[in-house]
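**Polypeptide and fold**
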Amino acid sequence: QVRLVESGGGLVQPGGSLRLSCAASGRLFSINAMGWYRQAPGKQRELVALITSSDRTNYADSVKGRFTISRDNAKNTLYLQMNSLKPEDTAVYYCIATIKIAQSPDYWGQGTQVTVSS
């Protein structure tokens, strides 16, 4: 079992920045990719960014050039640096972990709210 706990969400003005963190614990040796999904009101969850165990990254087109996913293996922590935030980035952001890359996530965090508004 893997436990994921997000932090760092909040309210930010358009153009601002936030950094989300995800503390991971448990059977992490089984995990081959971690990432972030988000879900806006009335919309389906969507993949925002993914990083594999070999440090390959993948981003949704809507966040390329603005968001950066990274991890600190020593701290078992995943990050999402979000810059130039837009109102359409408003959503609940979920940390995920997956055993087999390109398959649906096996583990989800509880989510953290990000609101971009003036």
Summary: The mean pLDDT is 96.
